[in-house]
């Protein structure tokens, strides 16, 4: 039920041939949505699955979906999901014939992968030499040059220390990109515009690289300002065949991590697409690649493209490629690992329609476009009732979002016959997505996909800081939208008042029937207080705001987390997030949560006598904006610090963040 309900373009491997034997049992050495994704295809292919998990993931969705599950250690990934000794023991114990593993995480897996091969265990992915070559950004860049793939100017060796980093950066010319040789996912990457930022970037990037990948080697290359990030999906077998499965546009990013992806790209013409695809295939053949992989490029405004890196795994954003080609990439990877040749030729690969993916994170988008949030999902409902929607997730209602793993909640994918249709469905899906208990980035995602620049395809990797130079503030209401919100909130308040007068569908006091049909209210929204008059006629409310009348209709199912409301003929899906006895309520409207206070006219007049609670003075306190681990403290009690000086370093979801003093003072 989670797949795109599209049959017209599923032309190829979405249908499984039961006569094509592969493996009887497969171990999935991963967690979350990607583990669930692999299990779904295995079930379709009749392959039994074994899930590994940490102790805190004992009740995770991927564990429940698998046929067998084994705990491999405590919560930290280094002691569980990256504990190769424990994983190897599980492979032997369960007699798994194959293993699916996120090989990009750590190069130390290579020896274990070779051992698996010697014991007759097949790895679902490329051979170890390809993983090693492409997993090392320095070696991969040299290989790309030899394969005649366009590369970014830079230093091809390992940077020894901060002083050498500064010297190399000066030679290349600022700005430069400092990044982990074994890195990926935006971790261990820093942009430096001067010597000071280079020294700081070297320090943080090496620490993040060591923490995330067990390898602190760094490289430096020219930073291409304001590019697009476009990648090519490749698929190759063990018989020398390789295909490019079109491109994915991944330019909407924050902290070098992708947020919104789509396929195809609005920017590429057929000639550029073919040139990028042919270079990607040339690189795959140069390293004898055999599986699904992704070759990433930076593309400038003149459509010049440069090799960035090759990811030797199934990318997070692979669903958009599956939607427009009809291929099941996990199935193709399993077939290739078993030794079957590819069933398709390059001419067979279509671009059917358009697909968009939004990465839904447990993050606060109002802090640096998304700082991690933790907590328990008290309510969770995916928008699968919206047509042509696919949700890849590894969580459910009651799941915990912890500090130990990536804060991704799900990948939300919509498909349409064209881009406008896919974006309209994404807008509807985001409005119908219910997530309670943690902060999430739905508001940011919705604002991005409806922004005029994005709709026109005028995007780059700088989209977010350019569109929101002062940070993301949520949706800015127009006058009409403000009136719609006020009218909806007032109607909701009255509907609730009427419901509270009834008990099991009958009046509480049948003798004293209320004939009331109009209400005078005062609604506070932001810094404004608005008089609102509401009258009721059947299930319809007539609401007067700013001297204008709006008609509001709904089924008013107040027990539902979603409310479909029609305002003067315009349908809106809203969510009431919270309410209390003092009239305060939070409503999600057009993706953004707005805080309102709704009072009767009398209560509003009396509220001015209520004392206001003074705001807490936090200027002398350094409060972490996110949960995480303190990995370094730069001061001690008694030290004098100046404004902007580093106090400590917090690591959250494998990203390191420097915490600075807000003012001059003594610790």
From TrEMBL:
SUPFAM superfamilies: Glutathione synthetase ATP-binding domain-like, PreATP-grasp domain, Rudiment single hybrid motif, Single hybrid motif. GO terms for cellular component: mitochondrial matrix. GO terms for biological process: lipid catabolic process. Its EC number is 6.4.1.3. Pathway: Metabolic intermediate metabolism; propanoyl-CoA degradation; succinyl-CoA from propanoyl-CoA: step 1/3. Its cofactor is biotin. It catalyses: propanoyl-CoA + hydrogencarbonate + ATP = (S)-methylmalonyl-CoA + ADP + phosphate + H(+); butanoyl-CoA + hydrogencarbonate + ATP = (2S)-ethylmalonyl-CoA + ADP + phosphate + H(+). Keywords: ATP-binding, Biotin, Ligase, Lipid degradation, Lipid metabolism, Magnesium, Manganese, Metal-binding, Nucleotide-binding, Transit peptide. GO terms for molecular function: ATP binding; metal ion binding; propionyl-CoA carboxylase activity. Residues 141-338 form the ATP-grasp domain. It comes from the Eukaryota. It is an enzyme of class 6 (ligase). Residues 22-469 form the Biotin carboxylation domain. Residues 613-667 form the Lipoyl-binding domain. It is found in: Mitochondrion matrix. Pfam families: Biotin_carb_C, Biotin_carb_N, Biotin_lipoyl, CPSase_L_D2, PCC_BT. CDD domains: biotinyl_domain. Its main location: mitochondrion. InterPro entries: ATP-grasp, ATP_grasp_subdomain_1, BC-like_N, Biotin_BS, Biotin_carboxylase_complex, Biotin_carboxylation_dom, Biotin_COase_C, Biotin_lipoyl. PANTHER family: CARBOXYLASE:PYRUVATE/ACETYL-COA/PROPIONYL-COA CARBOXYLASE (PTHR18866), METHYLCROTONOYL-COA CARBOXYLASE SUBUNIT ALPHA, MITOCHONDRIAL-RELATED (PTHR18866:SF33). This is Propionyl-CoA carboxylase alpha chain, mitochondrial. It comes from Dicrurus megarhynchus. The gene is Pcca.
